[in-house]
Amino acid sequence: MKMLVTFDFLIVYNYALKKLFVIVDKWVVILHWSIKIPRPYEVLG
Fold it and tell me: Out of the domains of life, which is the source (predicted)?
């Protein structure tokens, strides 16, 4: 019974971790664009 609970927890943990990675990946993309877009203006300005 304990093994089933642990296995269940691992599935939930793995799912949560994947969700977290998706969120982190989105933020990395957003930050990347936030940093990259103003640079041509800095060069021109």
Answer: Bacteria
Residue that has been written with the tokens 């994947």 in this structure: 18
Alpha helix (H) ranges present in the chain?
Answer: 2-36, 38-44
Quickly count: other Cβ atoms within 10 Å of residue 21's Cβ: 10
Per-residue pLDDT 10s for the chain (45 aa) are 566 678 888 899 999 999 999 998 888 888 877 776 655 555 555
Which residue in the block uniquely carries the two structure tokens 């609970």?
Answer: 5
Full residue range of the structural domain in which residue 25 is found: 2-34
Q: How many distinct structural domains can be found in the chain? A: 1
Distance CA 5, CA 18 (A): 20
Q: Is 41 among the domain residues?
A: no
